[in-house]
Amino acid sequence: xNDSTTHHSPLATHQVGVDPWLPWPLSRWSWWTExxxxxxxxxxxxxxxxxxxxxxxxxxxxxxADFFGAVSLGSPEVFAGRGQGxxxxxxxxxxxxxxxxxxxxxxxxxxxxxxxxxxWPRPAAFVAWLLSVSILNLNYYxxxxxxxxxxxxxxxxxxTPCGAVWSLDSFFRRKKVNPESLVTHHSxxxxxxxxxxxxxxxxxxxxxxxxxxxxxxxxxxxxxxSGDVLQSVLGNIQWARWSFAELPLPYPxxxxxxxxxxxxxxxxxxxVAMRPxxxxxxxxxxxxxxxxxxxxxxxxxxxxxxxxxxxxxxxEHLIDRKANDPSLSA
Amino acid sequence: MITRALRLxxxxxxxxxxxxxxxxxxxxxxxxxxxxxxxxxxxxxxxGRVTSVEPIQDGIETLARITDRWMEATGQLQGWSLFAPTxxxxxxxxxxxxxxxxxxxxxxxxxxxxxxxxYFRPPGTYGRRxxxxxxxxxxxxxxxxxxxxxxxxxxxxxxxxxxxxxxQMQWKSMRAYLRWQRDRYAKEHPPxxxxxxxxxxxxxxxxxxxxxxxxxxPFMRPLARWRPEVEPPAGCLPVEACTDPAKGVxxxxxxRGEW
Lengths: 330, 259
Known about the structure:
Chain A has helices at residues 30-33, 38-60, 64-67, 101-117, 121-138, 145-157, 168-177, 187-190, 198-220, 222-225, 229-234, 251-273, 275-295, 301-307, 315-324, 326-329, and strands spanning 14-16, 36-37, 193-195. Chain A is mainly α. Chain B has helices at 2-26, 54-74, 127-141, 159-188; strands spanning 90-99, 106-109, 195-204, 216-226, 239-244, 249-251.
């Protein structure tokens, strides 16, 4: 899975963050050892922060008193059992006054803003992760698979130099080192920043596992194998955004889509490992998630999933092309 | 020195994460542990034993315990099976029926319940409540009205057994939901009702090629009843299960089932 687009130039480069010691065979595998451009992680940080901000502001804040506190849907006794015999923790467990959740959610939204602009992004990711896990365990039924991805991404963001570029932190750092550099020659582009790829690789493996496991469970289902399920899903008035009666799809198309989803998920790890199929496989994933977001009531699941694709975009090509294009530079 | 230690620590962490990701996603296929009796936790583990050889089973249990604790501590919950392996043949929407000792009953429907032939739900701020209510629908959505026995569900049990187990698991969230609905209603229409029934309105999704395309329903399926002023018998839950939906029979059920 070497990717030439992520290789760094021996010319003036700058690696940010800790370069891990890796055991064999990882240490011999350039996919794990070759630094990647920091823009890839920054793109994940920014895209994810936008989705998180929308999530907190639109999904939690308007209804916080209904969701949290005594005699609410998440009354402390309801999910207290999650902590018994398990390590499902919540910093907010036991809070009965629902009014206290307003400042909590505002802090959460604030941490998403800091993550977005890249000002103290790792502490911001840490705070966001603390609250994300706490909120999920406090009222588990409010959540779905997208929120699990939310926790996972935050966990990695707080451990990585996600503010190395495209952040206020990097802006201030450059300003401190060389005030001139901010106004001349796109200096940050001439000396690009690199990071160790470990977090992006682990997130990619997580993505592949999500799809493979989904595909495996689907393969077990007889209605998935017969190609019926998407007809049932799109016709299910609980999950579909619009009535199938008003916008029916031809059955052969729905059946083909069912099989596409099944085999695409199941074969994702294999297809994405083969260079000729990689781009197509990823594009199918993007389109499927857009399709899911448009047609089904899955909250922000698709958007959190799409964030996992952001580090796969060759942002450095776009930026370097822009920097090397005299007409754009001017 | 500190840098070397940091590099080593980070490397060990990455290695463990890699192992963890595979263990946490594939150990569920190896039978271990026991089924949980608390609120739904989306447990995808196969329960029981994979072998009668104690050291091997103990090793699997230990590995699963370590993996689970790390998953819980770091919030990296796994278990991925969207709409799989089966998808319910029915759509369901929660409705709450209020009753007073005298006077007419009142039913409050879920805001998500549409006209099956004509609706559009734009994205909004309601997604979280939708998720919450969906948790009460999972069981009945698999039980079509014409046959109150297992449909596509792999368990061999009847409705009475299934609803009893479900209420034993979900009685706390059911009561929280019913109490929340009662309080909301009573705020604008006092006095508070003396009896609150959790019901699911079911719509059978048309099969492929079925003409005309029209979901059958709604079929009202009572699940549980909460009577705030009635003390449950000793050892029983404060929420009663509807063991016979056709006749509307509710029964007190023991706190913990012998499954």
